[in-house]
Design goal:
It is built from 7 helices and 4 strands; from the N terminus they run αβαβααβαααβ. With 200 residues, the chain is of the alpha+beta class. It has one domain: Rossmann fold (3-Layer(aba) Sandwich), CATH 3.40.50. Strands 1-2-4-3 form a 4-stranded mixed beta sheet. The relative contact order is 0.18. It binds S-adenosylmethionine. InterPro entries: SAM-dependent_MTases_sf (IPR029063). This is Methyltransferase type 11 domain-containing protein.
Amino acid sequence: MDSIEYWTQDMSVSWDELCPPLKALEARVSLIVSNYALHWIDDKSQLVAVMHRLLTEQGGLIVARILAMPHLNAFLMDAQMTEYNTRGKTFSTEQHLDIWRTVCEGKGLEVKLLVKSDAKWVYGRQDMIDFCPIIASLSRKVFGISGPKLEFITGVTYDRYIRPDAHRLNPNAWTQFLDNHSIQKVVLNLHELLLICIKP
Ligand SMILES: C[S@@+](CC[C@H](N)C(=O)[O-])C[C@H]1O[C@@H](n2cnc3c(N)ncnc32)[C@H](O)[C@@H]1O
């Protein structure tokens, strides 16, 4: 659309590192919308501080849909948390909500709505094969692992998505899917957060 300018910006950087045209929007942005992106950014406190600085006083809004990654540590043994470097890095949905509320309120935003919702994504076989590297890439980033450790975490993450009621993790879930060509469709059960907050 001619009336829209598209810029690409890594939003994990500090205010000083933002590109100059974005910094020029300080206190001039009326709405920040984000769909399934904020969970990629580790330093939530810095991210929210940057968004807060961009928003207009008295009414600047953030509307974001955020993926809550599965709470793998609720299923992993102590030694596994060490092995896969997950300790302190996975959270229950309630903890995810608390973290976002604390960060937003800590930066002076008023949280108008912060709720979790359950989403079901139906993927055809090839779509799932295309999507799995994104799960792996997010896990690599969050846990700083690669190789067989990353394969394990990708497998159990996929397993949580397809078997949300299971009490034990199946690390082979992903390879079993790949081997079983009769599986043409999967249903991913995701938890997502909806965040709406305002700069008062
Ligand atoms: C699941 S996609 C969602 C894309 C799009 N918002 C949509 O709804 O289809 C996640 C997006 O987060 C973006 N992302 C990841 N890390 C980011 C960062 N540090 N700064 C800005 N965007 C980031 C990726 O480029 C990717 O486009």
